[in-house]
Specification:
By secondary structure, this protein is α/β, with parallel strands linked by helices. A hairpin with a 5-residue loop joins β15 and β16. The strands form four sheets. The chain has a seven-stranded mixed beta sheet, with helices on both faces. The structure holds ribulose-5-phosphate. Its EC number is 5.3.1.6.
């Protein structure tokens, strides 16, 4: 009989498998600039990189997406650098990050850890953005298994008006994310902003429908394009692509998504294969 502890162990093993495989496939020895995302799966990405040893990583600089990954990089003895020091003409060679849900077209929900704005900047600063996750994150359509809502980073003074607009758009009970247990008030991001979690009915892929919204159901692209235009919204936790950059450098969508599976294998999804 499988206990909750067994399940938790399986999830951790799956995350680790995905992370080690992604690093093996995408961290080439000649790379010098690497983005490191946030969350519990990325911990294993850093473990895999550190396991390569100082000789392999000596010339590499690591760019975090927030305070958590900054600490991870430093604790692993890797060279920390900041994205605001990256000249506009340069790109990261690769960036690794987790996701809360991944759909059939490699659109992502991110921001479960409240780092989505910096995560999007780092991912789109990379020639190759690689997603690492466990089997629970694999979904045909966003909003199927991750039902807490799409994380949206907002200016605190605009939060009530953003909530109203989200309801008008059909969000089912959007709410301001509370702080950690024992802490009163809203969670505050690394940018001093708040997060609203906005649940929507599972989102269609653009190829599902000619219409951007039918029967109250949005396509990922149409919803994302509308959310980002709400005054007071700083950034949204949909990583998507409708701009022709889906598989190119600077895209929000990953070039590959690695999933550690419950059977001990790693499933790799790439744009060509979806
Ligand atoms: O977007 C994120 C943080 O803002 C994380 O990448 C996402 O929440 C996945 O986290 P985990 O690897 O812990 O499941």
């Amino acid at each position: 009989m499988s206990t909750a502890a067994d399940q938790a162990k399986l999830v951790e093993t799956s995350k680790r498998l995905a992370a080690f495989q992604a690093v093996k496939d995408y961290l080439l020895p000649e790379y010098t600039r690497i983005g490191i995302g946030s969350g519990s799966t990325v911990v294993y990405v850093v473990e895999a990189i550190a396991a390569l040893g100082p000789a392999a990583t000596a010339k590499m600089a690591f760019y975090p997406t927030g305070s958590q990954s900054e600490e991870l990089i430093e604790a692993a003895g890797l060279h920390l650098q900041y994205i605001n020091k990256l000249p506009a003409a340069q790109q990261l060679d690769v960036a690794f990050d987790g996701a809360d849900e991944v759909d059939d077209d490699l659109n992502l929900i991110k921001g479960g850890g409240a780092c989505l704005w910096q995560e999007k900047i780092v991912a789109t600063s990379a020639r190759q953005f690689v997603c690492v996750a466990d089997f629970r994150k694999l979904s045909a359509r966003l909003g199927t298994s991750w039902t807490k809502g799409i994380p949206i980073e907002v200016l605190p003074m605009a939060a009530p008006r953003v909530l109203g607009e989200l309801e008008r758009m059909g969000s089912l009970g959007p709410r301001i994310r509370p702080g950690l247990p024992g802490k009163a008030g809203a969670i505050v991001t690394d940018n001093g902003l708040w997060i609203i979690d906005a649940p929507f009915a599972p989102l269609q892929l653009s190829r599902d429908s000619a219409s951007t919204r039918s029967n109250g159901t949005w396509t990922v692209d149409a919803l994302a394009d509308s959310l980002i235009k709400i005054p007071g919204v700083a950034e949204i936790g949909l990583f998507y692509g409708n701009n022709g950059l889906e598989v190119a450098s600077g895209a929000q969508k990953p070039v590959a998504a690695y999933f550690g599976m419950a059977d001990g294998t790693v499933q790799v999804k790439t744009p060509a294969a979806v």
